[in-house]
Amino acid sequence: RAASESRDKQAKTFWTLPNSLFGMGNPLLDISAVVDKDFLDKYTLKPNDQILAEDKHKALFEELVKKFKVEYHAGGATQNSIKIAQWMIQEPHKVGTFFGCIGKDKFGEILKHKAEEAHVDAHYYEQDEEPTGTCAACITGDNRWSLVANLAAANCYKKDKHLDLEENWKLVEKAKVCYIAGFFLTVSLESILKVAKHAAENNKLFCLNLSAPFICQFFKDNLMQVMPYVDVLFGNETEAAAFAKEQDFETNDVKEIAKKAQALPKVNTKRQRIVVLTQGKDDTVMAMGDKIETFPVLKIDPKNIVDTNGAGDAFVGGFLSELVQEKPLDQCVKAAHYAANIIIRRAGCTFPEKPDFK
């Protein structure tokens, strides 16, 4: 048994060299609290929605900390997914690389410390004009939540100041799989396109997440500039519906949406696009090759669900952990379901010491 474990470890190390998974996005410190309906109403927040903070939300962050019992967790969608992928892989450390922008402040130090703890190779662009970004996760009963992101420093990421630097770009070149959440489309389209084009030219996998309905609606032009480079597209049923509407797909059927998204124009014709759409507790839908497959999620007793907020990020992290090891796609989905199932049992996007995934 020891010999076979050592062989497994060698095989894994061979496939997953450090920095073989690259992520770039908005590093945020999540401030989560269980709130009441009055709080949501006061700031006109909808349950299960994700928005960017406007002026009217500025006081929300202070009130949240003052009025409710808050917890702080390192967050930001892409960073969460890279962290989960690294946790699933375990060794070697630093398979996952992450780029994003933070402030030179206490919250920024927490994010650096948390990335280190998670064995992620985080290289932040640090600037002092804006403070580190935060995301208020307002949780109400029955596992519903509303997210309000104050990007602040995360919005200041600069291609020429960070991504283009030789020592940083070298890390992108080491990657086999690149993942960026759609949220970053509001920050630096040129950075995304540079990574996406590099992936297409070198036959690497470029993965993107629809991330939120508002991305599909209000950042449609940016999204569609990147879409031709997307090898793996992730989304949930709400985002898929918003995307379908904006693209005039004229269908609400998740399988049909997956098929139509797969058929959108693509630059790297060596790989056919894969589209993976989750539906909460219902089956996950995947368009691959010329077929549509469905995969049932792992059953869980509702009373064991603590926080569904990180489920989507965890799903992607699990999927990427197998993808970067060149495992079959059904194994990627299996790992995705496992990771999401673990994360929803805990507060924030946190996890036990080791995974128990076979």
TrEMBL record:
It catalyses: adenosine + ATP = AMP + ADP + H(+). GO terms for cellular component: cytosol; nucleus. Its cofactor is Mg(2+). Binds 3 Mg(2+) ions per subunit. It is found in: Nucleus. The active site is at residue 313. It is an enzyme of class 2 (transferase). PROSITE patterns: PFKB_KINASES_2. Residues 42-352 form the Carbohydrate kinase PfkB domain. One of its GO terms (molecular function) is ATP binding. Its EC number is 2.7.1.20. GO terms for biological process: adenosine salvage; AMP salvage; purine nucleobase metabolic process. Pathway: Purine metabolism; AMP biosynthesis via salvage pathway; AMP from adenosine: step 1/1. Keywords: ATP-binding, Kinase, Magnesium, Nucleotide-binding, Nucleus, Purine salvage, Transferase. ATP dependent phosphorylation of adenosine and other related nucleoside analogs to monophosphate derivatives. Monomer. Belongs to the carbohydrate kinase PfkB family. This is Adenosine kinase. The lineage of its organism: Eukaryota, Metazoa, Chordata, Craniata, Vertebrata. The gene is ADK.
